[in-house]
Amino acid sequence: MKSLQPLDIVANIAPIPTERLTLLDESCASIQIFPAGQVGTILEVYGGETLNYLVEFSDSQGREYAMAILRKSEVLALKYDLVLAA
């Protein structure tokens, strides 16, 4: 599988503790844990020993409400077209 790139769409596969989030919308201030399955967009890819991604989460109107740096093991790439396993 190719590595993820900026603007790729992903979902977090595990809950994210709020101390790892940057909340950008005051209405989210009461969140105690960010639930799994939220859809986000990769903004930055950080290399090194392990890959990390800066992911922005937005609502259906495009308003960003949270950001987090997630490990490769914490995201699932979402695809619109059929991708067959090699």
List keywords for this structure.
mainly beta; two-stranded antiparallel ribbon; 8 strands; 86 residues; six-stranded antiparallel β-sheet; globular
Describe the structure.
With 86 residues, the chain is mainly β. The strands form two sheets. It has a six-stranded antiparallel beta sheet, with no helix packed on it. A two-stranded antiparallel sheet has the order 2-4. The protein is globular, with a radius of gyration of 13 Å. It has strands at 9-12, 16-17, 21-23, 33-34, 39-46, 52-58, 64-71, 75-77. It has no helices and eight strands. The model has no long low-confidence stretch (mean pLDDT 91). Strand 6 (52-58) and strand 7 form a beta hairpin.
Question: Short summary of the structure?
Answer:
By secondary structure, the protein is mainly beta.
For the biggest sheet, the summary is:
6 strands, antiparallel
SS field, number of helical segments: 0
Give the low-pLDDT segments: none
Strand content: 35-45%
Query: Measured on Cα atoms, how large is the radius of gyration?
Result: 13 Å
Q: What is the topology, as strand order, of the major beta sheet?
A: 3-7-6-5-1-8
- H/E topology pattern: EEEEEEEE
Through-space gap between termini: 9 Å
Helicity range:
under 10%
Mean pLDDT: 91
How many DSSP E strands? 8
Overall shape: it is: globular
Q: What would you call the structural class?
A: mainly beta
